[in-house]
Amino acid sequence: MTLLQVMPDDAPEVVLLRTRDRAQIADVLLDCSVRLRSWPVRGAVEPGTANDALIELYRAEVDELCAEEGLKVTDTVQFHPEDTPQWRTRAEQARLTFLEEHRHGEDEVRFFAQGTGCFYLHVQDRVLAVVCEAGDLLSVPAGTRHWFDMGPRPDFCAIRFFEEEDGWVGDFTSDPIARSVPRLDALLAGDR
Ligand SMILES: CSCCC(=O)/C(O)=C/O
Ligand SMILES: [Fe+2]
Ligand code: NI
User: Which SUPFAM superfamilies match (predicted)?
Assistant: First the structure.
């Protein structure tokens, strides 16, 4: 289930809010101009599924969203865990790519078709950690400071939407904040 945990940016060990109530999560995010919507999930994405085939599964929703919001480019990010050293190295490198605070010149729009990943949104003096699950469509406004953790064993398939070919390029803030905020595995361990 989707999870939201809110922390002060200067004391991330303090939990201001932790909820799995979807309506509450959507409301809190909307106060920050972040939209959380749901799409129906169209079954398991098997390892080896081509990127085009994944997008095709959600063709109706993808086309509608692109037409409504002026999004022109789509791609996918897929991680299906494997127990090989090569896979673990690739996963570690991919995880590091998104683990530093950055912002984009356009909205960050991501749909989770499968698995789990956490977006950390740094809005004013708080960090909102949004653990996304299959069916979640998250839209983060351009300019929002954020980072993403796919966890130590990445297992997710996401569709990404862009206005421009280079919409994914990040402007890194060089704020080390991401290093002091609980990562995805620690956030989920809070359930135990
Ligand atoms: C969930 S897709 C991978 C993360 C990503 O695309 C991004 O831009 C993180 O900031
Ligand atoms: Fe991003
Ligand atoms: Ni980003």
Answer: RmlC-like cupins (SSF51182)
Pocket of ligand 1 from Cβ distances under 6 Å: 77, 98, 108, 110, 117, 146, 148, 158, 160, 168
| Count of alpha carbons within 13 angstroms of residue 180, beta-carbon side | 13
Is the dihedral angle over the CA atoms 168, 2, 62, 71 positive or is it negative?
A: negative
pLDDT at 87: 97
**Cα 84 from Cα 44, distance rounded (Å):** 22
Question: Is pLDDT of 192 > 80?
Answer: no
Number of domains the chain is built from: 1
C-alpha span between 171 and 143 (Å, rounded):
9
Model ipTM value: 0.94
**Residue in 110, 111, 118, 137 to alter for ligand 1 test, most ligand atoms within 8 A of Cβ:** 110
Ligand number with the minimum distance to the CA of 116? 1
Confidence bin at 191 (pLDDT 50/70/90): confident
Structure tokens belonging to residue 110: 């991501």
Q: What is the mean pLDDT of residues 115-124?
A: 98
CATH number at residue 26: 2.60.120.10
